[in-house]
Write the structure tokens for this entry.
Amino acid sequence: MTVPASEQRAGRGHWRLTGVVAAAVSLIMGIIVLVLSQGIEEPQIASFSPRWWPEALGSLLIVLSLLIAVETWLRPPGSGEEQESSTRRGAARIVLIFLLIAVYGVLWYFIDFRVSTFLLFTGLVAINGGRGWKAFLLFPAITTAVLYLFFDLLLKVPL
Amino acid sequence: MTPLLEGFAQLADPTVLACILLGAVLGMLVGAFPGVTATMAVALASSFTLSMDPVPGMAILLTIYVSANFGDRIPAILVNTPGTPASIATTFDGYPMAKNGRAGVALTTSAFSSAIGTVAGVIILMVAAIPLSALALQFGPAEMFALVVFGLTMMVGVSGGKISKGLVAGVFGLTLSAVGRDPITGTQRFTFGIPELSDGIPFIAAIIGLFGIAEVLDQILVHKPGKTTPITQFGRWWPNRREAKQMLKPLGVGVGVGSVVGIVPATGGDIAGILAWDQSRRVSKNPEEYGKGSLEGLTAVDTASNSTLGPSVTTTLALGVPGDSVMAVLIGSLVVWGIVPGPSLFSSRPDLVYTIAGIMLIATVLVLGLSLLRMKSVAKLLDLPQQYLWAVIIVFCMVGTYAVNNSVLDVGIMLLFGLIGLFFRRFGFPPGPVVLGLILGELAEGNLRRALAIGGAGNILTSPIALSFLVLSLAALVVPPLRERAKQRKAGRAVKQS
């Protein structure tokens, strides 16, 4: 089966965009490492400065970012490099999950672990599409109980 | 008492046996759920095993490792979805067999092949670990540095067409390992005044984020409603005499391929399975059946994939370089327990080889028994909606990370690494080299600096062992793209001719 030309173009466009972002991020990481390395104190007596290794790695990241950029420009996408595309709903769910985790962090500080974790489970299941009393009550109750028994009572972790 | 008896004697403790049982059940479940990898499970389990004694803790982690490599075959055969990457090649013939009404025979054959492969690998561990570590004891800083480079480039080299991104991931991991005290002078680096970072990035938090949270976030990001229905018609369960005879040759191929792949640092069951399938097809009398439900293909794949476990543990413990990604995670726990993998480990604790081998053997027998229980109930588990699994993994990752040091900072770092891991996955950077770089960074830097201080670059370039490792490393980076290009050129020529 042949892939339509429009899909091929879209695939190549996505490959290019991914490559450019990857190269840019590698470059930025390399520069950040090099800049931060300058803040490392240097002892008086040392054959090798403690900056030496991070500087070498930062420079390597910059070289590799150029390699990715060149590769993205010259090489067509290889087989097995396609990825399932992300969905808007999925991205929204991830944002909501992190907001929920932030709220959980606050709740855990102020109220009991069991209550806050029960609410966290309920929230996570709801965000990901769970509905009904089993999803909102039974599942959070069982999993919270298991976590509490395991970590607090068995392993003595102060929750 | 001999090391053999001493090693096995440690397993007589009922707590250890209970831990093996717990690990077996957890591992089977982990393997059976697509999306929960053995690496992720061992990372999660590390969070609670750290508070245990080393032997019971190792019993849980190693049994999950063994058991997940049995459980992951179930979804590969019944829903054409590998439970973990190690069972990718199981889908080639396992699923067609199931579609042809032979799911029962496929599951039983897979269980026996996996068990035989694991036992063969454990025998290699018992025979090769101590001599290999004795050999590695001769290594100086130059050789150790070259070995670390070899391990890292092997993992990058098998990243499948992503060599440059794999290298970035590896260098990023090495950079992360530079956080904390300098290994030679003790100077603080990249700690930003946070005292907790003096000991470096919390390793368990980083790997739970990279392998646990990132994987779940990735699944949530691409998830589309829809469901795969598992095959529920199992047919007969036991292979007949003709089929049992057919299994002998692929068993041999599987053990051979798996042992060699397993001993190479950073390569695991996924690669061994695919290689063994190909090799077995070449020597088979019925190559045309491969990919259409061949019992031989299935046997070769599962034997090879599981034969890598023992050799992988051997490389990890004898050389201190992880045999695969699960071993990379295991090293983190071992170090916390005061068991530092590397050439000197087995000269001071030879009994440990046999304790580990014993755990893996008991786990294999136990998991084989569990696998042979008729697995219709496991097929029902595959129907469990994913939102439950995601919720459990996210909360377990958080509470588990907190439990390691009772530190909220660790949880924050874990979540940050979850996002970094998600970015890496979406932009084609393999996460394995990050972990390897993080683990091996200190070893690489310390040994490189020592080697250079002793005799400059000549110290590395005049050592035959170091030079061999460096040449192999270069080959690991250069050969795969060249082969890929040659394949593309060949395919292009074939299209032109037709």
Observations:
- Helices of chain A lie at 5-37, 52-74, 88-110, 113-127, 133-154.
- Residues 104 and 120 of chain A are 6 Å apart (CA to CA).
- Chain A has five helices and no strands.
